[in-house]
Automatic annotation (TrEMBL):
Pfam family, one: F420_oxidored
Organism encoding this protein: Plantactinospora solaniradicis
Official protein name in the record: NADPH-dependent F420 reductase
Keyword flag Oxidoreductase: yes
SUPFAM superfamilies listed in its UniProt record: NAD(P)-binding Rossmann-fold domains (SSF51735)
High-level lineage: Bacteria, Bacillati, Actinomycetota, Actinomycetes, Micromonosporales
Amino acid sequence: MKIGILGTGGMAAALGGAWTAAGHDVVIGGRSRERAQRTAELVSAAGHGSLAAAARHGDVTLLAVPAADASQLVGSLAGDLAGRTVIDCTNAVVPTDEGLMLATGGATSVARQLAAAAPDAYVVKAFNLCHVSTWTLRPSTFENVPLAVPYCADHSAAAAATETLISSIGCTPAPCGGLARAAYLEATAALAIGLWWAGGQPRAAFPASAQV
Ligand SMILES: NC(=O)c1ccc[n+]([C@@H]2O[C@H](COP(=O)([O-])OP(=O)(O)OC[C@H]3O[C@@H](n4cnc5c(N)ncnc54)[C@H](OP(=O)(O)O)[C@@H]3O)[C@@H](O)[C@H]2O)c1
C-alpha cells in the first residue's frame, strides 16, 4: 500500500519503519526536507519530501504531528487529502493541576476536528494508545497475544485500509465504531498516559475476563 506520513518524529519513524519492513511504499513528509530525508533514511522508506508531497503519495496518510497543530495542517492540505484515508494517531493531552486532561474537553475529538477541516478525506482514529516504542517491536506480541489496535472509522474503505495496515505488522485490528466514538479512544489514551506518568501500570487494569 502507498503510505504518506506527515511528520518526521518518533511516531513517523516507528510506524514508518514497521510499514516499510512489512513491504509498504512509505514516503515521509516534513516541513524540514532535511529531517524528512533523515527519518526516511533511518527507516529505509521509499522516499521523502514536503508535507504536501507525502499527502499526495498516500492511499493512506498517517498524521504524526502534535495534536495542537493537526487541524490547521490537515485543513491546509485538504485538497491533497481529498479521497484519501487519514489516520490520526494524535493525543491532545495537557498536564494540569488536576492531572492529564484533554485539550478537546472530551466532548469532541481531534479526529472529528480533522474530519471537519478536510471534509473530503476519510479520517480514522488509530495507533494513539501505545507508546511509540511499541511499534518498533517485531512482533508486537505480549504474553503470546498479538497487540490489539483499536480504531474508529466512518467509511468502510478507510476501515479496510486501516485493518490491512494493522494486520501487516502482526497486530490485530479492533474496530470500535464510528468517528463519533473517537473521543473515547482519545480519553482512554489520556487516562493510560496519566497512569504511566504516575508510575502505575494501565495494562494491569484490563486483564482477561476470569470467565473466558
Ligand atoms: N510518542 C508517543 O509515544 C506517542 C504515542 C501515541 C501517539 N502519539 C502522538 O503522535 C503524534 C506525534 O508524536 P511524536 O512522538 O512522533 O512527536 P515528535 O517526535 O515530537 O514529532 C513531531 C513531528 O511533528 C512535526 N510538526 C510539529 N509541528 C508541526 C506543524 N505545525 N506542521 C507540520 N509538522 C509539525 C515535527 O516537525 P519539526 O521537526 O519540523 O518540528 C515533527 O516531525 C503526537 O500527536 C502524539 O500525541 C505519540
